[in-house]
């Protein structure tokens, strides 16, 4: 493939290009599209939940369907929306920030995406095949092991497949950051977003195996007659909760740390100031990640682990407030004394500070074990984690999209629409969730299909539903903004925000080889240094020469399809052994792909120096 | 002028009070008006942590607002390049040390309360009740008293009552917000917690761990009565004769239908330990049918005829012979007459 071939193409060719691409920027588009699709789906599920709870004893949804709805809302938002959207942004930006031409394992990158996508589709197939999982996104045993139908089976296989994709993504990013930084880009000169990508990848590497193990045990209990969680046969039901939360708590940081990185970059850029306390920010990130593995049992204060365990986990959890507080104050100090521009990207970031502070504070309140006996599994917890995940992660994703949209797609998102959607979503968000703190303390447990009349819960729930509808409108406006921008948006220059980091040193969108010549990095905020102290553009660290690029491949798609087919086989072989054919066929396809990949040489191709020079004209 | 201000002030304060009271939720359900030892213990920590956190929030918010007002880019300053500050050791130390102190202020009472609420060493001297969580109802067995009952948990006020809890199926969680925080009811081990009501009353109890389609309908009541009334209730319950014939003919037919249709294979009346389904010894005293319905005959007949429409996924559906409307009505009459005690939710101030 040459540069010329990357230009005007037919629709079929574009589809084929995306199916086979190993370019990190195109894989980012795929992640954003896939994650965005599931985000809308999860949002729709949220609206159904809120409509059911608009008044007491409502019958909009049946009890069983309601449980499916809450399960799928949680699972979809965490695994299929928030994480892929973040992985998409990481994919698009992190290699640019370290001055790399791609990630370390482009093939693996593509495989990671397709596994996520097929896993997500498999999970959602359950809606049409007898019912979605209904044991909550936490799938506590024995409710999940005894749940009738195949819903929970879809949950197990869907998450197992998409989880494998995520794990690959994490490993890939780790290796990329360790090995592919441009000359001069030392660890302590990496932008915060790259740092948080790095730490997040470590978390993925250590946290996901716990989920994988848990899901395998669950799978064997449900499909092959084992009894890991079956109490009457000597199993232990609570062990699932440990496995799940040893994964599940770091998962929260897997989501929030990249958002922290996004805000760090945005605050610095739009305040025209270097990030305040860079070193402290880096170490606070690492400390949060480390402590994140030590606190899982705070999800289990009411399980009956005893006062010693509860006390230790309470204190460990409270300790996380310290590095998080450091971050909040450093962001404020970054803006202090700066020259602050407020646009859509900055609005989302500014809204994050008070919203996330509330979420963090209720987190400390929840850490107080005895107080948690009241909060636990009530709407207080629902309010808390939505403040953290919407107020932190979703605001972070939206800030990142507005900030990097020109870099990723070459066009600037419409400001007027951006601001309108922000205000609707922001007001709707607080309207929905603030009152839920009180609903919880007033005696409303979470995951309640109906609440009864005359329990003082009517007004709070009504307000919450109105807020949710506002959020829905805000979200819809953002989608409209994307469509409007892609049709009528203004073309973006290479550096629309007066940026500080390397991604703004190359055109928007970047050529598929990113950097014509690998840049030389002379400090933190390398582009800013060149703009203020140098010649205004990056100095090359190498002479112009041939660039080696990897070949595209359809194998990741086919391999993931194989796992997808095998997934159906595993689920239905319980009813009929003939389905084992699907297991063998699917696994056969996947293994054949691996064999081809291992035996066939992929030489890649070179972009010659002459082509690069012609491009410059 | 002063009088007008005073009036305004009192009206204002009164309406504020009303708002706060309404905002605290339904009395005897809300955790915000604690009426038991555990709930008070939790409430103290909720208040302490709220104050600390509010303090932090106010500081963050003030700095935030000042920053935005003072340092927003102004007209004519488009080319202004701020000083590139790397950091500030003193400031960074301050905002590391102060949070550590604040966390310690919260941690110490948290640990103390955690050990206090987990202290069940004196359980032998107190009242012990074995609690079984079931999809979707609660069973209470009074250890040493030969009393079995379901859905309504009678306890004396001012005394620690130890609940030894286990589940017969999936995980449940027992929560009576006004009296105490919750504790999970696991299938594999007995969890013990104590509750102590400070005031007489009928308190709402909830299941707080997702346990199936009717998770939200697993309500129960804690009926806290004076120690004398409690003793009276124990005596009344122990004096129940499960074979006793009801007074009127309809209820007698109901009792016959109850026996013919094999209801007793699941539902015990009296102190039989059979707890496949809820024990019905004092069914007529209960404040709710199946935990949620008003105790009228009509609703009870509906329940007996089609429990699935009321509590989806319950274990009674399809596990008994089809009943005629008349049979169901007779059984309802019989059950509503099972009123062994003068001490009822009504007398406890429902």
Automatic annotation (TrEMBL), chain A:
Write down the CDD domains for this protein, in alphabetical order: Ubiquinol_Oxidase_I (cd01662)
- One of the Pfam families matching this protein, by short name: COX1
User: Where, by residue number, does the polypeptide cross the bilayer?
Assistant: 30-49, 69-93, 105-129, 154-180, 192-219, 239-263, 275-296, 308-333, 345-371, 383-405, 417-439, 459-484, 554-572, 578-596
In terms of domain of life, where is this protein from?
Answer: Bacteria
The EC number of this protein is 7.1.1.9
**Where in the cell is the protein located?**
Cell membrane
| UniProt keywords, alphabetically | Cell membrane, Copper, Electron transport, Heme, Iron, Membrane, Metal-binding, Respiratory chain, Translocase, Transmembrane, Transmembrane helix, Transport
Q: Which InterPro entries match?
A: Cyt_c_oxase-like_su1_dom, Cyt_c_oxase-like_su1_sf, Cyt_C_Oxase_1, Cyt_c_Oxase_su1_BS, Cyt_c_oxidase_su1_bac
GO CC annotation, single: plasma membrane
Coarsely, its chief localization is membrane
Task: Tell me the Gene Ontology biological-process terms attached to this UniProt entry.
Answer: aerobic respiration; electron transport coupled proton transport; respiratory electron transport chain
Q: In which pathway does it act?
A: Energy metabolism; oxidative phosphorylation
Q: Which reaction does it catalyse?
A: 4 Fe(II)-[cytochrome c] + O2 + 8 H(+)(in) = 4 Fe(III)-[cytochrome c] + 2 H2O + 4 H(+)(out)
- What Gene Ontology terms describe what this protein does at the molecular function level? cytochrome-c oxidase activity; heme binding; metal ion binding
Asked if Cytoplasm is a keyword of the record, the answer is no
Which positions fall inside the Cytochrome oxidase subunit I profile domain? 10-522
Bilayer topology reads:
Multi-pass membrane protein
Family of the protein in this entry:
Belongs to the heme-copper respiratory oxidase family.
Summary of the function given for this chain in its UniProt record: Cytochrome c oxidase is the component of the respiratory chain that catalyzes the reduction of oxygen to water. Subunits 1-3 form the functional core of the enzyme complex. CO I is the catalytic subunit of the enzyme. Electrons originating in cytochrome c are transferred via the copper A center of subunit 2 and heme A of subunit 1 to the bimetallic center formed by heme A3 and copper B.
Record protein name field: Cytochrome c oxidase subunit 1
From TrEMBL, chain B:
Q: Which terms does the UniProt entry file under GO BP?
A: ATP synthesis coupled electron transport
**Note on cofactor:** Binds a copper A center.
Q: Under the cellular component aspect of Gene Ontology, which terms does the record hold?
A: plasma membrane
Residues forming the Cytochrome oxidase subunit II copper A binding domain are 124-236
Residue runs in coiled coils:
none
| Subcellular localization | Cell membrane; Membrane
What does the record say about its membrane topology?
Multi-pass membrane protein
The terms under GO molecular function for this entry are:
copper ion binding; cytochrome-c oxidase activity; heme binding; oxidoreductase activity
Residues annotated as domain Cytochrome c:
249-339
Which stretches make up the Cytochrome oxidase subunit II transmembrane region profile domain?
23-121
The entry's keywords? Copper, Electron transport, Heme, Iron, Membrane, Metal-binding, Respiratory chain, Translocase, Transmembrane, Transmembrane helix, Transport
- Main location, first listed in the record: membrane
Which cofactors does the annotated protein need, by name?
Cu cation
Where are its TM segments located?
46-69, 90-115
Please verify whether the record's keywords include tRNA-binding. no
Recorded hits in CDD domains, A to Z, give: CuRO_CcO_Caa3_II (cd04213)
Reactions performed catalytically: 4 Fe(II)-[cytochrome c] + O2 + 8 H(+)(in) = 4 Fe(III)-[cytochrome c] + 2 H2O + 4 H(+)(out)
Superkingdom of source: Bacteria
- Heme as a keyword? yes
Q: What class of enzyme is it?
A: translocase
Which family is this sequence assigned to?
Belongs to the cytochrome c oxidase subunit 2 family.
Q: What exactly does this protein do?
A: Subunits I and II form the functional core of the enzyme complex. Electrons originating in cytochrome c are transferred via heme a and Cu(A) to the binuclear center formed by heme a3 and Cu(B).
Protein name as it appears in the record: Cytochrome c oxidase subunit 2
């Amino acid at each position: 493939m040459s540069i010329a071939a990357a230009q005007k193409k037919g629709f079929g060719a574009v589809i084929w290009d995306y199916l086979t691409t190993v370019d990190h920027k195109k894989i980012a588009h795929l992640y954003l599209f896939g994650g965005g699709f599931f985000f809308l789906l999860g949002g729709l599920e949220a609206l159904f939940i809120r409509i059911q709870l608009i008044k007491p004893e409502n019958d909009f949804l049946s009890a069983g369907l309601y449980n499916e709805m809450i399960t799928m809302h949680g699972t979809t938002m965490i695994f299929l929306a928030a994480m892929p959207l973040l992985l998409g942004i990481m994919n698009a930006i992190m290699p640019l920030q370290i001055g790399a031409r791609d990630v370390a394992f482009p093939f693996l990158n593509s495989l990671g995406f397709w596994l996520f996508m097929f896993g997500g589709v498999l999970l959602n197939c359950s809606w049409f095949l007898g019912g979605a999982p209904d044991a909550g996104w936490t799938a506590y045993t024995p409710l999940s092991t005894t749940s009738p139908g195949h819903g929970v089976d879809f949950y197990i296989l869907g998450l197992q497949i998409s989880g494998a994709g995520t794990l690959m993504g994490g490993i890939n990013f780790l290796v990329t950051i360790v090995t592919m930084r441009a000359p001069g880009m030392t660890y302590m000169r990496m932008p915060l977003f790259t740092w948080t990508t790095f730490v997040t990848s470590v978390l993925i590497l250590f946290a996901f195996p716990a989920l994988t193990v848990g899901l395998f045990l669950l799978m064997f209990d449900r499909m092959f007659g084992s009894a890991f969680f079956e109490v009457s046969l000597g199993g232990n039901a609570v062990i699932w909760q440990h496995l799940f939360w040893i994964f599940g708590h770091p998962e929260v940081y897997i989501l929030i740390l990249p958002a922290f990185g996004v805000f760090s970059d945005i605050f610095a850029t739009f305040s025209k100031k270097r990030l305040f306390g860079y070193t402290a920010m880096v170490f606070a990130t690492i400390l949060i990640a480390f402590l994140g593995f030590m606190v899982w049992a705070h999800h289990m204060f009411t399980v009956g682990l005893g006062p010693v365990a509860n006390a230790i986990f309470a204190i460990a959890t409270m300790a996380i407030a310290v590095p998080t507080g450091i971050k909040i104050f450093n962001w404020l100090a970054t803006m202090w004394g700066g020259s602050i521009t407020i646009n859509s990207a900055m609005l989302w970031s500014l809204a994050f500070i008070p919203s996330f502070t509330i979420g963090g504070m209720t987190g400390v309140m929840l850490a107080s074990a005895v107080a948690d006996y009241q909060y636990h599994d009530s709407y207080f917890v629902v309010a808390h984690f939505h403040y953290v995940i919407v107020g932190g992660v979703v605001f972070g994703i939206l800030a990142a999209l507005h900030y990097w949209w020109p870099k990723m797609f070459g066009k600037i998102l419409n400001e007027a629409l951006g601001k309108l959607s922000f205000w609707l979503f922001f007001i709707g968000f607080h309207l929905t969730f603030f009152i839920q703190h009180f609903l919880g303390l007033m005696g409303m447990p979470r995951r309640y299909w109906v609440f009864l009349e005359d329990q003082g819960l009517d007004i709070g729930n009504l307000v919450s539903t109105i807020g949710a509808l506002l959020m829905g409108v805000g979200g819809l406006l953002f989608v409209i903004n994307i469509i409007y921008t892609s049709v009528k948006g203004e073309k973006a220059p290479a550096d629309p925000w007066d940026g500080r980091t390397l991604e703004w040193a190359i055109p928007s969108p970047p050529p598929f080889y990113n950097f014509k010549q690998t840049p030389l990095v002379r400090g933190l905020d390398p582009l800013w240094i060149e703009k203020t102290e140098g010649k205004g553009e990056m100095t090359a660290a190498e002479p112009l020469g041939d660039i080696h690029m990897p070949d595209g491949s359809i194998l990741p798609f086919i391999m993931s399809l194989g796992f997808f087919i095998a997934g159906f086989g595993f689920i239905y072989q319980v009813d009929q052994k003939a389905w084992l054919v699907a297991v063998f066929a699917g696994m056969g396809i996947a293994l054949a792909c691996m064999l081809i990949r291992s035996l066939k040489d992929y030489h890649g191709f070179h972009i010659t120096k002459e082509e690069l020079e012609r491009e410059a004209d | 002028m002063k009088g007008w201000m005073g009036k305004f002030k009192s009206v204002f304060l009164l309406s504020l009070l009303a708002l706060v009271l309404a905002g605290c939720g339904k009395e005897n359900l809300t955790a915000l008006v604690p009426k038991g030892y555990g709930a008070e213990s939790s409430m103290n920590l909720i208040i302490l942590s709220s104050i600390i956190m509010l303090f932090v929030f106010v500081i963050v918010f003030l700095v935030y607002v000042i920053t935005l007002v003072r340092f927003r880019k102004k007209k004519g300053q488009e080319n202004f390049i701020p000083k590139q500050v790397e950091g500030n050791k003193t400031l960074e130390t301050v905002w590391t040390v102060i949070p550590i102190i604040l966390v310690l202020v919260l941690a110490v009472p948290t640990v103390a309360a955690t050990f206090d609420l987990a202290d069940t060493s004196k359980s032998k001297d107190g009242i012990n009740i074995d609690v079984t969580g079931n999809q979707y109802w609660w069973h209470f067995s009074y250890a040493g008293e030969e009393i079995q009952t379901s859905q309504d948990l009678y306890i004396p006020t001012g005394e620690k009552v130890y609940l030894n809890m286990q589940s017969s199926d999936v995980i449940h969680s027992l929560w009576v917000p006004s009296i105490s925080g919750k504790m999970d009811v696991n299938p594999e081990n007995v969890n013990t917690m104590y509750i102590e009501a400070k005031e007489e009353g009928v308190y709402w109890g909830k299941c707080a761990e997702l346990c199936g389609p009717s998770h939200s309908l697993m309500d129960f009541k804690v009926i806290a009565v004076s120690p004398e009334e409690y003793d009276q209730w124990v005596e009344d319950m122990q004096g129940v004769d499960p074979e006793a014939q009801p007074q009127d003919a309809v209820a007698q037919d109901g009792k016959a239908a109850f026996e013919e249709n094999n209801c007793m294979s699941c539902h015990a009346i009296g102190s039989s330990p059979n707890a496949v389904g809820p024990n019905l010894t004092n069914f007529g005293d209960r404040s709710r049918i199946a935990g949620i319905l008003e105790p009228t005959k009509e609703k009870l007949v509906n329940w007996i005829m089609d429990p699935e429409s009321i509590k989806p996924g319950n274990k009674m559906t399809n596990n008994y012979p089809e009943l005629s409307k008349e049979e169901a009505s007779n059984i309802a009459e019989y059950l509503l007459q099972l009123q062994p005690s003068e001490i009822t939710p009504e007398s406890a101030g429902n």
